[in-house]
Design brief:
The structure is a single chain. By secondary structure, the protein is an all-alpha fold. Helices cover 72% and strands 0% of the residues. It is built from 6 helices and no strands. Helix 2 packs across helix 4 and helix 4 packs antiparallel against helix 5. The longest helix is centred in the C-terminal third of the chain and has 39 residues. The protein is globular.
């Protein structure tokens, strides 16, 4: 097996494990979403993998969550929940932010990228709630109410991005230290 395949396989495995962690009990919004996108955006040199793999892993876990865990609340199979495009758009933007902010990994850059991921996700996903859910009037006051209602969940988004980014990036960097064969060009 080529070294690049081992490296690529480890990157994919870490993203899939992060997505699977969404199935474990956790506080609302304490999730690996931003971290998966940052991680993919940082380590994959093939940008289509950086952008699509974290979203595919997220979508797969969404299928299970929406149709098994919350399946009793829907009359039919849910391929995408209302507003999903906003969530996936946020992931796309976070992956791009990872590509731009973390060109060379450092604690400061990872912190900046994680905070940026939380902010981007908060802004984009809640805009999606306002646009697509019908929970708020489509007025400036409705948009403000939507963002205000989301503020209590933001601390968990921050915590989730910081914790999961630390775990994903830390695991991969430790792997590089103990397995020099993984030190190839980005996969």
């Amino acid at each position: 097996m080529k070294k690049v395949h081992v490296r690529y396989g480890l990157l994919v495995l870490l993203i899939l494990l992060a997505a699977a962690s969404r199935l474990l009990p956790h506080p609302a919004n304490f999730a690996p979403i931003g971290a998966m996108a940052l991680f993919g955006g940082t380590y994959f040199t093939r940008k289509r993998f950086a952008l699509l793999l974290p979203m595919a892993a997220m979508w797969t876990s969404d299928l299970y969550i929406n149709n098994v865990i919350y399946g009793e609340y829907s009359d039919s199979f849910v391929w995408l929940y209302p507003g999903a495009w906003w969530t996936y758009g946020a992931m796309f933007m976070i992956a791009v932010a990872g590509m731009l902010i973390i060109r060379k990994l450092s604690a400061a850059r990872l912190l900046a990228a994680s905070l940026s991921a939380s902010f981007l996700f908060f802004m984009i996903s809640n805009l999606g709630v306002w646009v697509s859910s019908g929970m708020y009037p489509h007025t400036l006051a409705g948009l403000e109410a939507c963002y205000m209602a989301a503020i209590p969940f933001f601390k968990n988004t921050l915590a989730g991005d910081l914790v999961y980014s630390s775990v994903l990036f830390g695991c991969f960097e430790l792997s590089l230290r103990f397995c020099p064969a993984l030190r190839l060009q980005k996969a």
